[in-house]
Amino acid sequence: MVFWGLVLGALLVVTTGCLYLLGVLRQRRPQEPPLDKGSIPWLGHAMAFRKNMFEFLKHMWAKHGDVFTVQLGGQYFTFVMDPLSFGPILKDAQRKLDFVKYAEKLVLKVFGYHSGQGDYRMIHSASTKYLMGDGLEDLNKTMLDSLSLVMLGPTGQSLDSSCWHEDGLFHFCYNVLFKAGYLSLFGYTKDQEQDLRQAEELFVQFRKFDRLFPRFVYSLLGPREWREVGRLQRLFHKALSVKRNLEKNGISRWISYMLQYLRERGVAPAMQDKFNFMMLWASQGNTGPTSFWALLFLLKHPEALQAVREEATQVLGEARLKARQSFDFKVSTLHHTPVLDSVMEETLRLGAAPTLLRVVHNDHILKMASGQEYLLRSGDIVALFPYLSVHMDPDIHPEPTTFKYDRFLNPNGSRKVDFYKAGKKIHHYTMPWGSGVSICPGRFLATNEMKLFVLLMVTYFDLELVDPNTPVPPVDPQRWGFGTTQPSHEVRFRYRLRPTS
Fold first, then answer.
1. Angle between helices 302-316 and 443-460 (to 10 degrees)
2. How far apart are CA 358 and CA 383, in angstroms?
3. Which residues pair with 354 in a beta bridge?
4. CA-CA distance, 284 to 55, in Å (whole number)?
């Protein structure tokens, strides 16, 4: 009897432990947010969340209010939906909400890169030094040269201004921005034709990885897809290897600075290759899709396109591409385009949908703007989804689903920064780049890269949709939460160089 009693006791302990791990036994404690575990042990609401994050969170918000905890694949996420309460989460003076550890796990899984102590500070230091001020101006000039090479060819003008060229707008924007960004950051060989071919081949592979990315992060790939991801990772590690870097000139000082840091810290070359893949993804994964939305909105709103072109004429003059030349204008004009700035900010409001995550270290009290206090449990993850709670809030942005190119302009033409919710001025009125410790360090480079591309397109090209009545496509639901959204289907357009002078 004693023996069987011990066996039954052991089984009870194991069963209880398994149930705990599956989340079955978790109960809401006093002062904690509403808890919704879902009907499936351990998985919880994971399938509904992954199917359409936007619709899922909208439903949970309506059901539970501004703060709620949900179970997603064995992990508990507390979503905070009141933007007036974001401050304590984003600032976190007590450092009880950690972003770095979560990011380190993610980059290890996706890129195979083992982050070392100090990497996060190093990346921000390099970005401050080379992606702002004079360093950014130098990179802007390089980007202009790269865009000229990609769009016009090595001879200076590969497009015939007498005929139209047709393409998918999403493919065109993503392709051009990826190749120009890749060449600007990772340098050239002596053979520009070869550089363009390699950049095109890399883009094809990058898009394959990009399509698998959301389900890869959620571990939803089938066996063949897992093997394909492994193949793509190895391909990019080789293509971006430090060994191949030695064969190139003009590698950006931003990349060079970070690689030197890793070398001095004794990081193996193979791990540096993985770091390069991570930085390529970070720098090029969103600029193409954002530029697609920007050009599509301009083509669907002729008054906006006209306003941007008039501003471009004011700052650039009547620019025309001369025979066998590259694009030629001062990149400093990017500082004098308030209309284009508003267009890009409005595009990011409508198109950027990142999720901001913080891991809770030790139980933590979150005080809401209303005065209500909630206990956040150690080990849970606090999540913000600004697209739904900020960008689509009609109180902050009237008619939030409508593209308004001048939404971020004051009547006098200056940038509008005063937005309100419930009568209170709100600091975080858009959050396309994240915020606080997790704000994108390359946001200024990305913004200038996209502005430069859009300026070139509206200044030097005639553009039109193949079908002017084609609606703006809905968002691919798999892309919610992963930076800039992508369209569910392609949009065809035509373009041609304006006649040379």
1. 100
2. 7
3. 481
4. 28
Residue 206's pLDDT is 98
Pair (44, 175) in one structural domain: no
Residues in the chain: 501
- Answer whether residue 4 shows pLDDT above 90: no
What is the model's pLDDT at position 158? 63
Helix (H) or strand (E) holding 328: none
C-beta of residue 452 within 8 angstroms of C-beta of residue 147: yes
- Provide, rounded to the nearest whole percent, the portion of the chain with pLDDT above 90: 77
Shared domain for 140 and 264, answered yes or no, is yes
Query: 383 in helix, strand or coil?
Result: strand
CB atoms within 10 A of CB 32: 17
Residues in binding site:
109, 286, 440
Amino acid letter for position 477: P
Residue 265: inside a domain: yes
Instruction: Verify that 324 and 419 share a domain, yes or no.
Output: yes
Type of residue numbered 153? G
Same domain flag for 128 and 246: yes
Residue 147: is its pLDDT beyond 90?
yes
How confident is the model over 332-344, as a mean pLDDT?
94
Enumerate the known binding-site residues for substrate: 109, 286
pLDDT at residue 74 tops 80: yes
Task: Please give the Cα distance from 148 to 152 (Å, whole number).
Answer: 5
Say whether both 280 and 370 belong to one domain: no
CA distance 221 to 228: 10
How far is 351 from 392, CA to CA, in rounded Å? 11
Whether residue 461 is contained in a domain is answered as yes
Q: Which domain holds residue 72?
A: 2-97+359-384
Name the amino acid, one letter, at 162: S
Task: Look up tokens 């606080």; give the residue.
Answer: 436
3-state secondary structure of 155: coil
Here the tokens at position 441 are 């360090």
Question: d(Cα 148, Cα 326) in Å, to the nearest integer?
Answer: 5
Q: Is residue 126 located within the same domain as residue 62?
A: no
Q: 220 and 238 share a domain?
A: yes
pLDDT confidence bin for 20, thresholds 50/70/90: very low
Q: Which two tokens stand for residue 340?
A: 């284009």
Q: Domain total for the chain?
A: 2
User: What does residue 492 show for φ and ψ, rounded to 5 degrees?
Assistant: -85, 140
C-alpha–C-alpha distance, residues 218 and 204, integer Å: 23
Mean pLDDT, to the nearest integer, of 225-232? 96
Task: Tell me if residue 143 falls in helix, strand or coil.
Answer: helix
Q: Residues forming the annotated binding site for heme?
A: 440
Residue 335, pLDDT above cutoff 80: yes
Residue with tokens 């900020």: 390
State the burial class of residue 309 (Cβ atoms within 10 Å of its Cβ: 0-12, 13-18, 19+): middle
0.85 exceeded by pTM: yes
